[in-house]
Amino acid sequence: MKFAVSGKGGVGKTTFAAFLIKALADAGKRVLAIDADPDANLAQALGIKESSTIVPIADMKDLIEERTGSKPGTIGGFFSLNPKVDDLPDRLAIKIDNIRLMVMGGVKKGGSGCICPESALLKQLVRHIVISRDEAVVMDMEAGLEHLGRGTAMFVNKLIVVVEPGRRSIETAFQIKRLASDLGIKNIALVGNKIRNQEDERFIREALNDFEFLCFMPFKEEIIEADLKGVAVFEKDKETLETIKNIIQEKIL
Length: 253
Description:
It contains 11 helices and 8 strands. By secondary structure, the protein is of the alpha/beta class.
């Protein structure tokens, strides 16, 4: 099972990804969690201590040069577009019980179309993880789905888009759907987050009535408390964790 989680910044996609990862792990799955958002926060949401000290793979200059044959930060020139990556999940993942986490980082030059060693390594690594690994994989993406290529995206079982009550979040959901269609992803579902009342849920349902909805998550002060205290979101909000566990049993597993 391979899941990509996306959405506009600030809607709570990393929070949902953390709940999904924990729910899958508690269901007995070996989970490989991938933080593919340049604004990496998944480690903190999972309760990993000193998460700010984790070095993203995109910043591992020696590794990138070793595997691609070219120094990071260079554009053009010759480097491998098919570097060896199959050993990296076992070498670089941070282990928490039956959850393992890899932080990809972002390519800081050239945008999503960057032809550079960093981009080549990250995309090949994501391709290997999605196509060849046999764990449950949950990828916390940015809205642009930067690390997914057409040959990789078709192996994603479900793209989950997190939305909140707000027009910018709704527009981002439509943009992600268009990107997903270009990549060949057809199985898309939504999670409504930060729901305060029935009017919030009704607004999202009416604005996105062509989408499948997995669930709606209420606004919770506990999520803010978890962030302030640097603990896992599911340690402070066990009710939402149980909701996600029920969803994966009913709609995913």
